[in-house]
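Ticket #804: bound-state structure for zinc ion.
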Amino acid sequence: MNIASVIVDVPAHQTDKSFDYVIPDQYIGSILPGMRIVVPFGPRKIQGFVVDVKSDSDFTKLREIVEPMDLYPVLTEELLNLGNWLSDVTLCYKISAFQAMLPAALKAKYEKNIVLSKNADPQQLILPLQQLFLDRKELSWEDAIKMGILSEVQKEAANGTIDVVYEVKAKVRKKRLKHIKPILSVEELKNQKNNISARAEKQLKVIDYFIQHHEPVELRRLLEELHISSATVSSLVDKKILEELEVEVYRDPYQNRQFQKTLPLKLTEGQQKVIEPIQQTILINQHKVFLLYGVTGSGKTEIYLQSIQTVLEQGKEAIVLVPEISLTPQMVNRFKGRFGDQVAVLHSGLSAGEKYDEWRKIHKKEVSVVVGARSAIFAPFENIGIIIIDEEHETSYKQEETPRYHARDVAIKRAEYFQCPVVLGSATPSLESFARAQKGVYELLSLPSRMNNRSLPAVEIVDMRDELKKGNRSMFSTSLFEKMQDRIEKRQQIVLLLNKRGYSSFVICRDCGYVVNCPHCEISLTYHRSQQLMKCHYCGHEEHVPQNCPDCLSEHIRYFGTGTQKVEEELGKVLPEARVIRMDVDTTSRKGSHEKLLQAFQEGKADILLGTQMIAKGLDFPNITLVGVLTADTMLHLPDFRSSEKTFQLLTQVSGRAGRHELPGEVVIQTYSPEHYSVVLSGQQDYDQFYQQEMMIRKIRRYPPFYFLTLLTITHEDLLKVVSVTEKVTKYLRSKLSNNAIVLGPVASPIPRINNRYRYQCLIKYKNEPVLTNALKTILDQYQQEMIKTGLQISIDLNPIILM
Ligand code: ADP
Ligand code: ZN
Ligand code: ZN
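RESOLUTION: The complex was predicted; output attached.
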């Protein structure tokens, strides 16, 4: 068994297969599938994943593995297979799939070093290098650049006296703390006391300490406890009485928090009915997908907790996925409160080091539950008993970059392997999932009423066109304004949702309608008041607001639309006594600020929480009795067939924030499209009716869940090139696919240019096209050279969520 099959870290078509390498004698038996290693590849040394270890190869003249990078496999057999599957279903390279399963910190970075060649004599080198290599073996590439000696290096490299090597180094080191431990036994320590002068009081104190606590202790703690300096400890280390050691510790982001221990609640009859089938599948090791459809506040989380309990009792593990923005301390508390240290948490707010530490706890099986955002679906557990996806309709479960996977699909794939249930939970399930439940592919479990039969909040829909007719030019309707006043008097809390970011959206000429667009991207620039600038959200382009309209020279050119900052200002004017917390991308970009703002609101430090969609989820504060949606229709007009579904979900979710506890809740939805069914039905919280109506439209327009979609987006700086490639690709697909498939294109993308690259697309709608994957692969192969050489990009998104 001295041959390793390796997937090398070169994301390209030619290298998307395993290469065989010889395992050097000293590593035989210690290199295993799932480990990362360094291998020679062409002139370079690169990283790779061992996917198999075997005793012979079909190839001759194999090269040797340079060295292992891991002591243990970082990917299990199951994850390696999952990676192959991911690469098949999302058309990504295997190496990209493997990398996606690991925390960022493990993704190695390559460092270039300049070294002296074997047998070369440093005395023979050109002057500056001669000096440098007399007392060192290598010089980093960066240092060489800094010293400005690159041309000398180049000359020597041409002579063969100097080499450049690529080294793979892990980005993040484990956090280690210096500990001190006694070398001598307790008896010997007691004897040693006689050899130490009585004046060395402090040294004696340390020895006494170790006579009493004969175990390693963190250096810092020892110094603090005994009020001594590190010199005292060093002298004992020098005398070979004590020794230093480095102990690896975890950076636990939650270590300073106290978690109130919670006990399982007695389930209601309704909850009992839905948990039984879940527990049944856990006990008999059966794979099933459940759709837990329950209005907000119906007790879904308690179902998750008690199902996990059953899983843990079986000695198995659980994965819980939560959308990134609902991964609030509140949410984490509910799991940590029930399962304590058995829970690891993975989300993007953690530093790379913290994420790595959480991942290692999972890897070492020190925890049995992981709660995390999308990528936590790859948690390296080996005995999974349940996978739960909360708010399963959330679009953030789809990764928008390679590999373009949906966490739901990965969850089902893993659960099939482990023969365990998947629970998809939502108050507003995605149409896809609900349709599958209707067809019996998933098992539908419903929790139709709120806990203690608390009523859903009363929803009022306000037609903003009428407000304008009545002469109300404010962004608050009369009704919403009066209700806000009322809550502030009663010291109750208000949530205001504005579905946008920044101070206002775009700059428009009021006379001719000219809108200031990005010169590179064909989308309107967003006005940022704090910097008095207009910015492009795609490419970062910035410019000042023009004094006059570039088109008609009118002076009436100004920003239009409403942003959170503007609402905040307006609130300051009309409700000066109200304390407001604003939460949007700008106020939450710093690590931990999201949590802090929520915490402050929970502690009653503000009357109004004003924010973008990030406030729509997960909030469960008893004092919120009013929710206002300032503009319900901002999403309705996006060029996306899911815009109604997304509007319905957002409005329903945000309405669910009100009146979850003793105090009843009210919701006011302001809109310019009060008759739109997604607004009307979210007001009635009528998912079933919405589902019926939306399904009809999807059927007529041939969209998911009736048809599958695949989107090809082709981009290049040269418009003619983009059009001609898209034409060829579209034609090819038409020739390959059946007559039942609908191939739309070539057309310009909804955003036709980003960062000076033109964008064209081809959209395929289909029900069953077995040859599609191969046709797409052929396209990628065909254009690979061009993609490398000319910067042409072809991105393929199977089951896209974003169609722009
Ligand atoms: P969801 O996840 O569906 O929004 P939650 O699980 O948050 O609902 O439940 C809403 C509230 O009801 C929470 O405060 C929760 O503690 C409480 N709750 C849930 N189940 C029970 C139960 N069986 N008995 C008493 N209270 C419960
Ligand atoms: Zn104008
Ligand atoms: Zn731009």
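RESOLUTION NOTES: The CA atoms of residues 648 and 679 lie 6 Å apart.
TICKET STATUS: resolved
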